């Protein structure tokens, strides 16, 4: 009989159990980190909803006409976009009438269908360009041409990963260049950016390289992506997400090709060349409440307004803000552009 076979059974089995435990734990950690990275940078592709299709099929009822186009990115992805031009019916819809009344009260109204400038509307993570259609309806009522597109990895555009500005800044440049000839002989006119959540972060990072942009609004946008990731990691799996952060960061670098720790819109906010409007919900559970204040401080004299919306959640900030938030946004762009 061998020496090994003379050992008590539990001394023979324990190393196997320990090895199995280590393998199981390692596999579990790998699974959790992979799941976290998927949620972080791999957007869900939602199809266009019925209400979106109803608008795009009959856009005249919303006070605009639609022209679709496609843009190729530097890494050969196809981004799907559309330009919404105000018509004589803009401002006659229920949403539009609210905006027109506010503009008239401030002496900023103009003839229906007249275009005073162009706004690029940038959607958030896990969304698509059509989520901005009702936003565009309001801004078309204010006299703005609206430019919408599916960010990489979203909607009908190509790509698998969102990089929160790493590639999206150049994507925005390319969308603008592709859309410019479609705006007609008069061109864009004064240009503004309005972004929600991730879209606001992209707008903030891109604007210093786009001096033609004369006004920027960011809603529910983070100042430092690390703060959002750390806050959410502390809530995941009973706090187990926090120890996984180094692994999540490294896996994001390997899979998506960027370091999420490098995404810091507040640094870009220090170099803005245009006025800034900020808004965030007071009950935002995704973006920590200090983010709007960090952005405001970084923008300094460029800041025009920073609104904290009582009762507003991350996804419900516009519902909680209601008509006052929409009119503030419309008035901001009408004045600055």
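Sequence proposed for the structure above (337 residues):
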């Amino acid at each position: 009989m061998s020496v090994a076979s003379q050992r008590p059974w539990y001394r023979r089995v324990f190393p196997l159990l320990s090895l199995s435990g280590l393998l199981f734990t390692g596999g579990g950690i790998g699974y959790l980190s992979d799941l976290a990275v998927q949620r972080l940078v791999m957007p869900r592709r939602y199809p266009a909803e019925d209400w979106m299709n109803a608008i795009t099929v009959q856009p005249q009822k919303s006070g605009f006409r639609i022209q679709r186009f496609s843009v190729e990115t530097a890494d050969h992805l196809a981004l799907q976009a559309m330009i919404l031009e105000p018509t004589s019916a803009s401002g006659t819809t229920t949403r539009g009438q609210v905006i027109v009344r506010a503009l008239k009260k401030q002496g900023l109204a103009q003839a229906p269908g007249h275009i005073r400038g162009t706004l690029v509307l940038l959607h958030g993570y896990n969304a698509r360009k059509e989520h901005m259609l009702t936003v565009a309806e309001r801004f078309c009522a204010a006299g703005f041409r609206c430019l919408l597109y599916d960010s990489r990895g979203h909607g009908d555009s190509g790509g698998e990963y969102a990089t929160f500005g790493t590639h999206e800044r150049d994507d925005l440049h390319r969308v603008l260049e592709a859309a410019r000839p479609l705006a007609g002989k008069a061109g864009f006119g004064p240009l503004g950016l309005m972004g929600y959540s991730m879209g606001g972060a992209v707008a903030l990072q891109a604007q210093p390289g786009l001096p033609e942009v004369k006004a920027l609004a960011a809603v529910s946008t983070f100042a430092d992506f690390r703060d959002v990731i750390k806050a959410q990691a502390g809530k995941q799996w009973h706090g187990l997400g926090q120890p996984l952060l180094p692994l999540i960061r490294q896996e994001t670098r390997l899979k998506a090709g960027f370091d999420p720790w490098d995404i810091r819109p507040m640094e870009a906010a220090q170099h803005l060349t245009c006025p800034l409007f900020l808004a965030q919900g007071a009950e935002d559970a995704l973006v920590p409440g200090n983010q709007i204040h960090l952005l405001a401080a970084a923008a300094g004299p460029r800041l025009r307004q920073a609104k904290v919306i009582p009762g507003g959640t991350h996804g419900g900030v516009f519902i909680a803000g209601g008509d006052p938030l929409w009119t503030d946004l419309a008035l901001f762009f009408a004045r600055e552009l």
